[in-house]
Amino acid sequence: MTIPEIRPDGLQLDEPRDRQRRYWRIQRIAWWTFGAVMLLAILGLTGSGGVFHTQTIHFANARAEVPRVSRWEGMDEVAIIFDNPADSHEVRISQPFFERFSVERIQPEPDQSLLAQGAQTMTFPTAGPAPHEVKLDLRATHFGWTGFDMTVEGETRRINLLVLP
């Protein structure tokens, strides 16, 4: 048996420090990664609140507030605000939206709901001065990346959102 030399720090150990340094380096990277995930969660990029939780889609006479990130089987809300005075407002949402979400409640209820080619069209009667607001309470039924088209008063916008498990 060989006796290890005495190191400059006074210890009489013969251990490979390279393995320990690699472990510490990996540990620091993991802590920075955890911190970044926490920061993303605080900012709202993992759903359920935060600055970046919702995205606002602008139309000519309306705007839609839609979540950027939703949670699987979690409740979310889509709000459509109409700025123009009209007798009724029409909203058309393409089928990929209904494949990913179940609509729990629509407030106010649409006066008319029609099935169109690859979409659903809802008509909402109005009373009183603008702005008018429609709210859809949603529950994500599947997770993954979702893209769908929303048409408000004849103007179509593409909306993308992520549903996390």
From TrEMBL:
Keywords: Membrane, Transmembrane, Transmembrane helix. The keyword Membrane applies. It comes from the Bacteria. The chain crosses the membrane at residues 29-52. This is FixH family protein. It comes from Paracoccus benzoatiresistens.
